[in-house]
UniProtKB/TrEMBL annotation:
<dbReference type="Pfam" id="PF05190">
    <property type="entry name" value="MutS_IV"/>
</dbReference>
<dbReference type="InterPro" id="IPR007695">
    <property type="entry name" value="DNA_mismatch_repair_MutS-lik_N"/>
</dbReference>
<keyword id="KW-0238">DNA-binding</keyword>
<dbReference type="Pfam" id="PF01624">
    <property type="entry name" value="MutS_I"/>
</dbReference>
<dbReference type="GO" id="GO:0005524">
    <property type="term" value="F:ATP binding"/>
</dbReference>
<dbReference type="Pfam" id="PF00488">
    <property type="entry name" value="MutS_V"/>
</dbReference>
<dbReference type="GO" id="GO:0003684">
    <property type="term" value="F:damaged DNA binding"/>
</dbReference>
<dbReference type="InterPro" id="IPR016151">
    <property type="entry name" value="DNA_mismatch_repair_MutS_N"/>
</dbReference>
<dbReference type="InterPro" id="IPR017261">
    <property type="entry name" value="DNA_mismatch_repair_MutS/MSH"/>
</dbReference>
<dbReference type="Pfam" id="PF05192">
    <property type="entry name" value="MutS_III"/>
</dbReference>
<dbReference type="GO" id="GO:0006298">
    <property type="term" value="P:mismatch repair"/>
</dbReference>
<dbReference type="InterPro" id="IPR005748">
    <property type="entry name" value="DNA_mismatch_repair_MutS"/>
</dbReference>
<dbReference type="InterPro" id="IPR027417">
    <property type="entry name" value="P-loop_NTPase"/>
</dbReference>
<dbReference type="InterPro" id="IPR036187">
    <property type="entry name" value="DNA_mismatch_repair_MutS_sf"/>
</dbReference>
<feature type="domain" description="DNA mismatch repair proteins mutS family">
    <location>
        <begin position="710"/>
        <end position="726"/>
    </location>
</feature>
<dbReference type="InterPro" id="IPR045076">
    <property type="entry name" value="MutS"/>
</dbReference>
<feature type="binding site">
    <location>
        <begin position="636"/>
        <end position="643"/>
    </location>
    <ligand>
        <name>ATP</name>
    </ligand>
</feature>
Length: 901
């Protein structure tokens, strides 16, 4: 399995000095000690990973790898010397390895863990070591390295013609998703929804990881692993008919590659038994949210300085990790099927109306552990006794969950279905209860795990051990009385076993049946025939008991693993119930209303921004009445609430299609297929894109992909270039959305002359956010500085804004007074209010208006203002109905160049 990553390989794609066989050992390869030779071999087997080589209580690394581990993990670098040379060495403690492995993963390395696979005392010579796990960012399974309630995917991408196959596996829970998309934009949107930690890319499917929000590690996967035949073979070990779960070769190859990679990293020769949920989905069956929408709506990450609250934070009132992961998935893929949405809303409504039942369910769910990850560990044979007890504690909570569900009064088909799906898995629960002690040790090979009474032979061995130890415990008193030596003591150590210790001054009183075992500086140690017999009996019973106990534990674990399908099914049902109960709790706490769906436009009464309202002391609700296909031009000052208003409309739509109640007094909504946002931008220096170029790229995607069922948010289109160009682009965009796309659009702008479009186009309307300026103290004079404030009302109203109040906002922000006064003088000297953006200048060439009529022909225009007739002719020949956005931009650039000439 070849898996080269940039951080692990040199420019030629070869393993680096940190990974692969150590350069410092190559010359002495044939003369290395057996242990170092074994280390060298394991490094060669996993040349793309940094090898951690167990040696007792530490994972050791050598040579360049040791120097890198010492640097990344902030460890002391030591050295090992032998006849072949001196080798740098750094060790990671086995008991605390997770902390250091996490640092190595963050540094961009894969980590191969070579563990001792036999006991030192049982080994004949060198202890054998084998790589039991390869840890990569996308295949982490240890809870210490994973966030609570998170999903951690490794995704694979392949390509067949224009079809891109995408598959993702969560190695910790066994979830596997597969789909396909038809173009590059769809690919990036799907990957942004998945947010994989690692990406396997075939040679035929180039992916620019820098363009993805999650910035995953990229692995150039070997071609053989993505071969269609190999993928079919891999998939066949999971499902009887691969064609039933995948559509086409692209999906088959991607799914097979992702599963094979997961198997390789987990050290399994065959299929991962706990991967039982291979699910195909169609991106068109969920609300489309690309990276721009996820980012600008701040669904999972807040972009504000020092801010932390996101929409997910507001919704996440889940009681357990299962529900948190489920809710995250719902928010990444809101529904578009109205019946499915209503079914979720019915369930949320039922839980909202019954507070007692809801809280009883949530109380029971708080005792639920991460059952999906537990099932994965049990199935992989890596669960310890505490994991089994956690699984049992979760199943113990199921009856209380069912009781709470039974108490819900309102009707809900979804809740009824969950009642049927929630299986207590009584046989597995009872087995764990009978077999495993309540508070078992972490180590499962040293005893203390199996309950007394579970196995008769084990009980007999433990009784023999206890009796022997009790006899030894009484031996000291008996021998003191028999010998008259008051300082005599009985003890035990791992090397010499049990002994009777007598100090030198009392050696003359030692009985004849004592046999010398060890000489100390001031004492001698002895044993008796009976003590030796008891020692053999105790140690023999203890060793056989430990071995038998481990066997019984493995049998119990295997029996529980056989119920993996049932356990995963109940985990999924509990996850869904927790997510629904969380949405109900948030709806009650935040006074949300149930949305209704219709075939009309967006109609929201007293809507609120779900995040802003919980982070601010005061929030002003606003109505939103947006007819289907309307383009609403939103004007008003900065800081007045335009962006917040636009986002809250989109968030209400998203929440409703998640199946959540919404922050409003009432909401009547259509089901939208996509939410597009063009809100804010920044330079992409690494990608070679300026702010304006990124803005235009996002705008291009919107104008190409939006449909009449989409919701589009545009904020300040065209602000990254000259005023004339920007205004022209903004106007052309609004016209195109109105005439060609028909999407419901909110378009915030400071180009106030665009508001005139409402008089020319049927579905263009004006909205504005009002502000109040303090009245001057005397006619014709400006108010004093303390009266020059602008009050933002944060209320939306019909019609265009009268001013952008840019100078006033600048003063309130602390811009120096001379700059403010000079700005004010320039604005006043410009005549009518232009808001600093030349709104009084007509965006026409030679007086040509939007209807194509040459206004200049009605009067004697100055010769310097006339434009060549060929430019006018060019404009008149343009077929706006068939001109694409990029063609329109190219035409504008060409016209500008000709005017400049």
């Amino acid at each position: 399995m070849n898996a080269d990553a940039d951080t692990d390989a040199d420019a030629d794609g070869n393993a680096s000095a940190v990974t692969g066989p150590p350069d410092g050992m190559v010359d002495a390869r044939d003369d290395l000690t057996p242990m170092l030779s074994q280390y060298f071999e394991r490094c060669a087997e996993y040349e793309d990973a940094l090898l951690l080589f167990q040696n007792g209580d530490f994972y050791q690394t050598y040579c360049d790898a040791a120097e890198e581990v010492a640097r990344v993990c902030e460890l002391t670098l030591t050295q090992r010397e032998d006849s072949t040379g001196t080798y740098p060495m750094a060790g990671i403690p086995v008991d605390n390895a997770a902390t250091y492995v996490e640092r190595l993963l963050d540094a961009g390395y894969r980590v191969a863990v070579a563990e001792q696979v036999e006991r030192p005392e049982a080994a004949s010579g060198l202890v054998d070591r084998a790589v039991t796990q390869v840890i990569t960012p996308g295949t982490v399974v240890d809870d210490e390295l994973l966030g609570t309630g998170t999903t951690n995917y490794v995704a694979a991408v392949t390509r067949e013609g224009e079809t891109r196959g995408v598959a993702a596996v969560d190695a910790a829970t066994g979830e596997c998703l597969v789909t396909s998309v038809g173009d590059e934009a769809g690919l990036y949107a799907e990957l942004d929804r998945l947010a994989p930690a690692e990406l396997l890319v075939g040679s035929d499917a180039a992916v620019d990881a820098a363009a993805l929000a999650a910035a995953p590690m990229v692995t150039d996967h070997e071609a053989a692993a993505m071969d269609a035949d190999a993928a079919t073979e891999t998939l066949s070990s999971y499902v009887a008919r691969p064609d039933a779960v995948v559509a086409g070769d692209a999906e088959r190859r991607a799914c097979g590659a992702a599963l094979a990679y997961a198997e390789w990293t987990q050290g399994d020769d065959g299929p991962l038994e706990y991967v039982t949920r291979i699910r195909r989905h169609d991106p068109r069956e969920s609300l489309g949210l690309d990276s721009a929408a996820i980012r600008s709506l701040e669904l999972f990450e807040n972009r504000g300085a020092g801010a932390s609250e996101t929409l997910f934070d507001v919704l996440d009132d889940t009681a357990c990790a299962l529900g948190r992961r489920k809710l995250d998935g719902w928010l990444r893929r809101p529904l578009v099927d109205r019946d499915a949405i209503e079914a979720r809303l019915d369930a949320v409504a039922a839980l909202t109306d019954d507070a007692l039942a809801r809280e009883a369910i949530r109380d029971a769910l708080r005792a639920v552990y991460d059952l999906e990850r537990l099932a994965g560990r049990v199935s992989r044979g890596r669960a310890d006794a505490r994991d089994l007890r956690s699984l049992q504690a979760t199943l113990d909570a199921v009856p209380a969950v069912l009781d709470g569900l039974a108490d819900v009064d309102a009707e809900s088909a979804r809740l009824d279905e969950l009642r049927e799906r929630i299986d207590p898995v009584d046989d597995a629960r009872d087995l764990i209860e009978r077999a495993i002690r309540p508070d078992p040790p972490v180590e499962v090979t040293e005893g203390g795990v199996i309950r007394e009474g579970f196995d008769d032979e084990l009980d007999r061995l433990r009784e023999t051990e206890r009796e022997g130890r009790a006899w030894v415990a009484e031996l000291e008193a008996r021998e003191r009385e028999r010998t008259g030596i008051d300082s005599l003591s009985v003890g035990h150590n791992q090397v010499h076993g049990y002994y009777i210790e007598v100090t030198d001054p009392n050696l003359d009183r030692v009985p004849d049946d004592y046999t010398r075992r060890q000489t100390l500086k001031n004492a001698e140690r002895f044993y008796t025939p009976e003590l030796k017999r008891r020692e053999d009996e105790i140690l023999g019973a203890a060793e056989r008991a430990d071995t038998l106990e481990y066997e019984r534990f493995r049998e119990v674990r295997a029996s529980v693993a056989a119920e993996t399908d049932r356990i995963q099914a109940v985990a999924d049902a509990l996850a869904e119930l927790d997510a629904l109960a969380a949405l109900a709790a948030v709806a009650v706490d935040q006074n949300y209303a149930r949305p209704t769906f219709h075939d009309g436009g967006i109609d929201v009464e007293a809507g609120r921004h779900p995040v802003v309202e919980v982070t601010q002391d005061r929030f002003v609700p606003n109505d939103a009445e947006l007819p289907p296909g309307s383009v609403s031009l939103v004007t008003g000052p900065n800081m007045s609430g335009k962006s917040t208003y636009m986002r809250q409309v989109a968030l209400i739509a998203v929440l409703a299609q998640v199946g959540s109640f919404v922050p409003a007094d009432a909401a009547r909504l259509p089901v939208v297929d996509r939410v597009f946002t063009r809100v804010g931008a920044s330079d992409d220096i690494a990608g070679g894109q300026s702010t304006f170029m990124r803005e235009m790229s996002e705008l291009t995607s919107i104008l190409h992909e939006a449909t009449p069922d989409s919701l589009v948010l545009l904020d300040e289109v065209g602000r990254g270039t000259s005023t004339a160009d920007g205004r022209a682009i903004a106007r052309a965009t609004a016209e195109f959305l109105h005439d060609e796309v028909g999407a419901t659009t909110l378009f915030a702008t400071h180009y106030h002359d665009l508001t005139g479009l409402a008089e020319e186009y049927a579905r263009v309307r004006n909205l504005h956010f009002a502000a109040e300026r303090a009245e001057p103290r005397a006619a014709g004079s400006r108010p004093a500085a303390d009266g020059d404030d602008v009050t933002f009302l944060h209320r939306v109203a019909e019609g265009p804004a009268s001013s952008s109040y840019g100078v006033e906002v600048a003063r309130m922000a602390g811009v120096p007074a001379p700059v403010v006064e000079r700005s004010r003088a320039l604005v006043d000297g410009a005549g009518p209010e232009t808001n600093g953006h030349d709104e009084g200048v007509q965006v026409t060439l030679s007086g040509v208006g939007p209807d194509g009529v040459d206004r200049a022909a009605d009067g004697d225009a100055d010769a310097d203002d006339e434009v060549d007739a060929d430019l006018v002719a060019t404009l008149r020949e343009v077929d706006l109905a068939r001109t694409t956005p990029i063609e329109a931009l190219n035409l504008l650039a060409d016209l500008q160049d000709r005017v400049d000439e």
